Amino acid sequence: MTLSASPAPPTRPRVSATVPLDAVPVARERTFSPFNLIALLLALISIALIVWPLVNAFIGAFVIDGELDLDAFARVFSDRQFHIALTNTAIIMITAGPLAIIVGAVLAWLNERTNARFGWLSTVMPIVPLLVPSIAMAVGWVFLGNERAGYLNALPRVVTSWFGPIDPAATGPIDIASWGGMIFVYTIVLVPYVYLVVAAALRNTDSALEEASRMSGAGVMTTLMRVSLPAVMPALASAALLVLIVGSSLFSIPRTIGTAARIDVLSTYIVRLTRVYPAKLDEAMAVSVVLLILLGIAWWGQQRVASRGRHSTISGKTGSAAIIELGRWRPVFRAIMIVYILLVSVLPFMALLFVGLQPYWTATIDPAVLTLKNFEAFFGPPGELPRRALMTSILLGALGATISMAVVAVMVHWAKERKGTASRLVEGATKAPGAISHIVFGVAILVTFAGPPFMLSGTLGILLIAYFVMYLPQASTGAEVARGQVGNELIEASAMSGASRSQTFWRVLIPLMLPGLAAGWALMFVVIVGDLTASAILAGHSNPVVSFVFLDIWDNGTLSMLATLGVLVSIVTSVVVFAALLLGRGSVIAGRPGRRSAKKGGSQ
Amino acid sequence: MAMTDTMPDDNADEPALRVTNLTKYFKRLRGGIVTAVNGVSLDIVAGEMVVILGPSGCGKTSMLRSIAGLERPDKGSITASGRVVYSSDLGIRLPPERRGFGMMFQSYAVWPHMSVFGNVSYPLRIKRVPKAEVRERVDRILGIVGIAHLRDEYPTQLSGGQQQRVALARCLVADPKVILFDEPLSNVDAKVRDELRIELRAMQRRIGFAGIFVTHDQEEATAIADRIVVMRDGDFVQVGTPREVYGSPASRFVAGFLGVVNEWSGTLTDAETIATPLGDLAVDESLLPMAAKQGDPITVTVRPEAISVAMSEPVSFDGTIWRGSAEDEVFRGPYVDRFVSVSGVRVRSRGDSVRSISNGTEVFIAIPRSAVRVVEHGTSSTLVEEDVA
Questions:
Q1: From B92, B180, B229, residue closest to A25, measured CB to CB
Q2: pLDDT tens-digit profile of B173-227?
C-alpha cells in the first residue's frame, strides 16, 4: 500500500518548479568533480606503472622481431646454476617458511590474546624488526655468528679461557654461514610479515569464541589449537603466501650470509643476470616468469582457503578482547618474546655497534681500544660515498613516503566513497604489487625505464618509481587504517554543511587521518630506506643508496665502515619510527593545548 | 494597482520540501533487489516537524539520506521551496552540499579536530561569509542552543548532550529552510534526550525551519511531531497527527508499533457486538467499517489505559464488563500495568499506581465502547496479545 501525505501532490514536479541553473544532469555530474577526476587519474597511473613495465619486459624478453622467442627459457633451464638456485630456494622456503609462520602466529597470539603482553614493548613489537634494515641485520648476524670471530662464538671461549689457554684457531660452536644459519636468519626476517597479518585477524575475531571454548572445558593450549588458530585460518593462508612472495625475493641474506655459505638462491641468481656485462635481461625475465608461475600456484591455493566460508568468524567491532591468563607459563612466553626482539634487532645492532667502535673486527671486545675513528672517517673524506648514500636514502625515503601516502590517501578515500568500479580499480592498483616478487618488479622497471625513451638509468627517478610501485600495498594499508578510523558521518556532516568534495578532503578528512597517515609515512620511510631488492638492481654510483653501498663495501671495503653505516641507518630509521609513533599516539593535531587524545577508533 | 503587483512569488506557496514518488532499491549481495523506499510522496511546510517512524529496516533512513543527497534514489523527485534538487525524469541530482539542507546525525558527527567555534562556523566559512559576520552569527546561535560558554572547547571534552548541541548549532547556523534529523537523540541519555526534545520544538517555533525527524522510538515521535508518518517495508502505512495515529491506528501494525495494545479477534454478531473468546464485546457502530456485516471475522485493539479494573461491578457503564482474576502487576512508577485473566486470556490494563491488587483477587474490567478500534476486518485470525514496547 502506498499512501501519500496530504495534500496529494502531483506525480510529477509542478511546472512552476524552478530548475536551478547550477543543476547538472546526473550523467555529467558523476565525472565532473575535480576530486574524482584526480583520484581516477592517480589510480590509472598507478595501474599503468604496475602493468606496463611487466608487459613491456615480457614482450622485450620473449618477442623478437614480432615472433615469440623462448630461447631464454631454454638457456636458463639448461643452466646447472639455475637448478641449484631453484632447489636451494625451495629448501629454504619449506624450512624457514613454516618456522616463521609458527613463530609469527604464536607471537601474535601471545601479544593480542594473553597476559604475556608487556605494555609498550608489546606495542612496538611489530615494528622492532623494521628498526634495523634487513641488509644491516644480515651483516650484524655475520658479526655475531661468524665461526671464527663471531661474538656469539667468542662468548663461550671467554668462559673456557678461565680454565686454560684459548686456541686462536678455534671455531664454532655457531657458524652462520651454513644451511642452519641461513634458515635461522630467513625465519626471523619473515616472522614480522606473519605477525602483522595474524595479529590483525585475531584483533577482529570475537574473543567470545575462545571464552566459549574455555567454558566448554578446554584448556589454553587446546583452545589455541582448536579454536583461535582455525578461526584465523584465512589469515594464516595469506601469511603463508606473503612469506613465499617475500622470502623468494629476499636478497639481503643470500647476498651476504649466502655468499659466505656458498648457497645460491633465485633472487641472487636473477640479480646476477642483470648485473653482468652485457646484461642478460631476457634470461632474468625468464627466471622471473618461472617465479611468477610458482607464486601464482601458491596464490591459487591461498584463495581456496580464503573462500571457504566457514572460517568467517569476524564479528566486526568487539570491545576489548578478553585476556587469557597463562598462569605459570607466563614467564616462559614472555621470555620467548624478549628473545625474539633480541635476535631480530638488539643483538645485530649491538654487533654492528661494536664492530663500528673497533679499529678492526675482532671477536673480543676490549674497552681500551674502542674508538670513534670509524665514525670520524664516515664524516670525513673516506666516508664520501656512504655519506652520500645515506643522504640520498633519507631524501628518497622522505620523498617516496610523502608521494605514496598522498596518492593512496586520495585513492583510498575515493574508493570508499564511490565503491563499485572505483574501489575495484583502487584495490587492484594497491594490492597487486604485493603478489608480485620485488625482484621481478626491479627487473621489469630496469628494462622499461633505464633505456630510451626515458633514459632513467642511474637516476633517483627510477628508484622512486620502483619504490612507489613495490610498496603501494604497505602505503595503502596505512591509509586504509587511517581512513577507517574516521566515521562516515563526520564526512557526510561536512557535505551537509555545504562543503565540496575537495573542501571536505582537505579540511575534515586529512586532519582526522593525520595520525594514521603519519604512521603509514614512517613505515614507508623505513621500508624505502631499508630496501635492497630494487636498489640492488637499479642503483649505481650515480644514484647510490644505503643498501647499494652496503653491498659495495661488503664486496670491496672495510667491515668497520660497513658497521658504521649500519649503525647510523638504524639510528635514523628508529628515530623516524618512534617520532611517528609518538605523533600518532597523541592528539589529532599535536601541540593543541588542552586536548585529550583522539578517541576515534579504539584499535589501531 | 495592477494585479501583477501583488502576484505572489512563484515559490511562496511551494512547500519547504516536496517529495514525490521517491523510490530507492537496494541490490542484495547475492542478486535480488529490495525496495527500500517504495514510491512515497510527502509535503512539508515551513515550521512543520514531520516524524518518520518505523522499525529498523523499514526504509526511513534510506528515505532521509536520499533527500539529503547522501544516497542515490532510483525514481521520483525532490524539490525544496520549488527548486528541484532531484528528479529522475529531468536527470537532475544535486550533490548534498548544493541542496542547502541541514542535517543532524545519530553519532553527533562533531569534528574532533575543530573547536566548538570551528565546528559551528564551518558552514559559514565554506560559504566565504565575511569574518565579522561569521563571528556574530556563530555567537548568536551558540547562545540560542545554550553553549555560548563552550565556544573555545574541543569536542572530546564535551558530554554527549553538549556535543549534540554543537551539532544542532552547526546545522542551524547557515539558516537552512529544511533540517533532516537522523535519530539524533538516540545516543544521549534519557534525561538529556527529554530536555533536547523540548528545546528542539521551541527552537523550531522560533526559527521556523521545516524538519524531518527519523526515529524508531514512538514516544519520541509523539512528543516531537506535528505529523507522524508510520513506515513499513518502504511504504507509508499511516500519516496523521500524533493523536490520530495513536488513537485511531489504521492497522494492527500501527497499533502495535505505537505503544501497547490488547488485540482480540472475534465474529460480528450484530451491529454493536463482537463475540470473542473472552465474551461479548460492545463496539461503537460508527467505528465499524462500512462493509461490516454479521458473521464477519473482525480484529479489534484496545489500549491498556482505556481499560479500568474495579473490585466491584460498575453500574450503568457504556461498554463491556468482563469478570476475571488479577494475575500480575508491574509497577512502572507513575502507573501500574495490571494483567487480568479473562476466560484464560491475559488482558492488559494500565492504571494509577496508588493501590495494589493482590494476585488471584476477583476483579471486573471495564472497556468503554468508544475505545474499541477495528484494525482488521474480513479475515479470521488467531488470538494474539501483542506487546511491542
A1: B92
A2: 988 999 999 988 887 888 888 888 888 898 888 888 999 999 988 888 998 999 9
Q: What is the chain B residue with the closest CA to A19?
A: B84
Are residue A568 and residue A521 in the same domain, yes or no? yes
Complex ipTM above 0.85? no
Chain A residues with beta carbon closer than 8 angstroms to that of B102: 496
Note whether A268 and A402 are same-domain residues.
no
Domain at A513, CATH number: 1.10.3720.10
Which is nearest to B350 in space by CA: B308, B318, B298?
Answer: B308
- What range defines the domain where residue A339 resides? 70-161+168-315+330-357
**B68/A500 touch (CB, cutoff 8 Å), yes or no:** no
Is A75 found in the same domain as A56?
no
- CA atoms of A512 and A487, how far apart (whole Å): 10
* Amino acid symbol at B23: T
Between helix A510-530 and helix A384-418 the angle, nearest 10°, is 140
List of chain B residues whose C-beta atoms are within 8 Å of the C-beta of residue A586 = none
Q: Do B236 and A5 touch (CB under 8 A)?
A: yes
**Is 0.80 topped by the overall pTM?**
no
Q: Which of A277, A548, A283 is nearest to A266 (CA)?
A: A283
Tell me if A595 is assigned to some domain.
Answer: no
The separation between CA B41 and the C-alpha centre of its own chain, rounded to angstroms, equals: 17
Considering the domain architecture, whether residues A199 and A259 belong to the same structural domain is answered as yes
Domain co-membership, A181 together with A110: yes
**Residue A490: closest C-alpha in chain B:** B109
What domain count does chain A have?
A: 2
Question: Contacts of residue B105 in chain A, CB cutoff 8 Å?
Answer: 489, 492-493
Report whether B242 contacts B221 (CB < 8 A).
Answer: yes
